[in-house]
Design goal:
Among the domains are: 1-30; 143-346, Neuraminidase (6 Propeller), CATH 2.120.10.10. Strands 5, 6, 7, 8 and 9 form a 5-stranded antiparallel beta sheet that branches. It contains 1 helix and 23 strands. It has one helix at residues 3-31, and strands at residues 58-61, 67-71, 76-81, 92-95, 99-100, 105-106, 113-118, 126-131, 139-141, 144-146, 163-164, 174-180, 194-200, 206-209, 218-225, 231-237, 248-254, 262-271, 284-287, 296-301, 324-329, 339-341, 344-346. The termini are far apart.
Amino acid sequence: MSNDKHQKINAMKYFSVAVFVLFILFTSCKTAQKNPFWNDGQPVFEVQQLVSNERFPNVVTATDGAIVATWGSEQFRALRSEDGGNTWGPEITVANPGFQGGGTTVDENTGDILAFAEGGHPPAPLTVYRSRDHGKTWSPEEVTILPNSLGHVPSMHMNEHGITLKNDKYAGRLIRPSRWYGSGNGREFWDEHYTNAIFSDDGGKTWQAGEPFPAYGTGEAAIAELSDGTLYYNSRCHKSTDGLDPRRRYIAYSKNGGQTWEDLWIDEKLPDGAQHTHYGLMAGLVRLPVDRHDILLFSNIDVPADKKDEDVPFELRTSRRFNGTVWASFDGGKTCFKNSMNKTIFVSSKNCNNEN
């Protein structure tokens, strides 16, 4: 048999197999059970009020699957849900008195959860609490936080939750965003403020403070680890000290496990709080656990500027905090497409030219 005839027969075989596979897939899709999460392709934005007292909420998922919500400006408390957030157990006191020092950190190496409680609005004394039973009970423990090269030991409030690194030589490291308040929290000190990170390689007993984020006037940040081990840092900006836009989120990266940050840029699609003021707002950030895919979810409020609001007095800076919104990026925040639906906007990030 000639080579040409051989190749034709093989090609027909592969074509037949491909058609058969497509037929199976097509008929399987027609008869498959309906996906309960699809909602007929329509967006869903569900809101559930958990608490009505105090401030500074945060939510993490424990390694046993429980959802752990924490909050508190006078008492540091927690709630747990074992059914994906449908129902919640009784309030759990973490610290009384206690001031929520930013998000908790789930140690995915051991399952422990670490909570950071400060003695009041920082700068203030810090106490770290550990839960060894997925958020049911908490105990204080002594930790050491080593200063960075400037001699600064940062405060924790009110940054997003920490994460456990999984890639390269820093696998297993605990890291969470932190903040240097300089001489105080007053507006006159904002030029001194900067965000950074603290990280631990011994399960949270000893922490090292990292170097400053490459923009001052910043605070209240969030960290995500990308699939290649790069750390993506997304920060609030109380005051622009470099002439950049203070109403949009500041972004930088770390290639050395959170020790230093570089490649600063402003994400002109992600708002930093209501757009009638430079004051900014804490935001949420999480990377979905999908292998080799950098799907980031960012949450903040979507309140556009109004001409009559441009000269709003500073004391009214928090008067328009509403319209909670979620953005998603499917490539680690590099490019975007935008699709506004109800209260949900999907994807908003760097180098985006699609305004539809």
